[in-house]
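Anyone? Bumping this.
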Amino acid sequence: MAATSPAAVELAVKLVDGDKRALARAISLVENDDPMGWELVKEVFPRTGNAKVTGFTGPPGAGKSTLISALIKNLRARDETVAALSIDPSSPFTQGALLGDRIRLTEHFLDPGVFIRSMANRGALGGLSEATLQAVLLMDAAGRDNVLIETVGVGQAEVDVIDHADTIVLVLIPGSGDSVQALKAGVMEIPDVIVVNKADHPMTDTLVREIKGVLALGNPVDGWTPPVVQTQAAHGIGIEDLVAAIDQHRAHIIEQGTLQERRRRNLRHEVLELATISLRHEIEAVIAADPGAQELLDQVVERKLDPGSAAREILRRRADQT
Amino acid sequence: MAATSPAAVELAVKLVDGDKRALARAISLVENDDPMGWELVKEVFPRTGNAKVTGFTGPPGAGKSTLISALIKNLRARDETVAALSIDPSSPFTQGALLGDRIRLTEHFLDPGVFIRSMANRGALGGLSEATLQAVLLMDAAGRDNVLIETVGVGQAEVDVIDHADTIVLVLIPGSGDSVQALKAGVMEIPDVIVVNKADHPMTDTLVREIKGVLALGNPVDGWTPPVVQTQAAHGIGIEDLVAAIDQHRAHIIEQGTLQERRRRNLRHEVLELATISLRHEIEAVIAADPGAQELLDQVVERKLDPGSAAREILRRRADQT
């Protein structure tokens, strides 16, 4: 394997030392798929595995970023450091913040114990989940006690990004009928903690009852029944309960051994994903550079050659070239 | 390329002739990743491209299968043949049907002009989208005028399956707050037609107003503004309007040339996907058979080797072996 460049080593030293600017730079490198980003992760990887990683998912408008902001305040009061990563394109963290959020976030920006960062959606060709894991690893190596990931999800099971978290929190609000239906139908996986935010809404009790009804139908996974926590994030109400629920879940998965198992499975999965993405880029390059491959694609569009045969033929051409 | 086996040719002849049992058998072969399934698709592929393919997506409980059932009745009255494919694990088509649905579906089962089929979810390793396309191609080659695909979606953009449709219909019901938020936030792509089902609900007007508000914010794509159709599928109300909206969309995309463009893009994308999946299976096989690769994965779990380096090393080992 190639030796790590002096520049990467220097940045790695600063990052592990807790330098916020080094962390920001490192994440940009990873996000831009810069080779130095990969060198960095390689360098600091042995330092990872210590942060508590919590993922927040839920429909847009549920108040995830406000909740995370309130949670950060609480964790700072316990003198724990935090890094937050938003990959929700509809989040104020990502978009530049509404007035109210900006005020709340400014207070965090001035605190060296808080690092907030957003990442852009990479589109269908993938890689976002991989870039996210690399960013989480960098935050972890930077010695942050907590890493909080914000993502958007409205019921699909295939939200890979959230798999990098140890504890998954689903944030709903009164009116989240679709998400509850998705939970009920088994289309959405049951999270570890469920938050009903904006719990001053008159329909809160109905939503809580519906959620508990869904949870009562399923068997607890590894002996854990997800607690339903009511919050009013904008007023800091219920945040203590949320922190307690996350802590309890963590204690539970450590005791059961599922934390190690989950991380093990995710890391192995990640290696396979990275290898696949790399091969996919290779095939794309082959197609782009090879007029014969282009012609095969044209034949598919003209319905002269089926997609399966074209795929096999392109793989054969690639094998011949290497 | 290998010659097609006589058994595949025989099945292909029956399938193209419109034999429902041959079609059912062919889809099973594709679903089970049987090599004969691929042979079949190869054989009949030149016969495809004629069916009108419409995809239905939306949260569980929105009544998609009831709507499709009502639509089938309408299309049959126009003397058009139909094949419906459900890949929604929460659908009664997939699960075996509730009493009411079963009665409605039985009437279709006896009709040679209607073919209904469900496919199981293939899980995270993928392939469902590919199996779906193959099934759609088979239905198309079988001479069905219409292919209807039912899938579940609650706002994610990454519902690949639906990409195989020419026209995408999003089905919502009053209470679909999360989906509307997802549309508003740009997390969910704007579909071609929006149905508000169960439109006898008192909150219908509010939902329609919200949807139109969201649509008014965006620019029409290729000069098309999605119509919002109100239906009561269980009572057959509004189905004529839905058929008219789908027909209008089809006429529009043919006129604009976007139908050919969309199919062209999807077929090319499909070839790349099939090639990638094939390579991924190869890597999995390499890892499973190579103790050295297993050891690399163990080193990642022990945080001695980073995932990126492990992926590169596994690809190198694979290249050495071939």
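Late reply, but here is one note on the structure posted above: The first strand of chain A starts at residue 52 and ends at 57.
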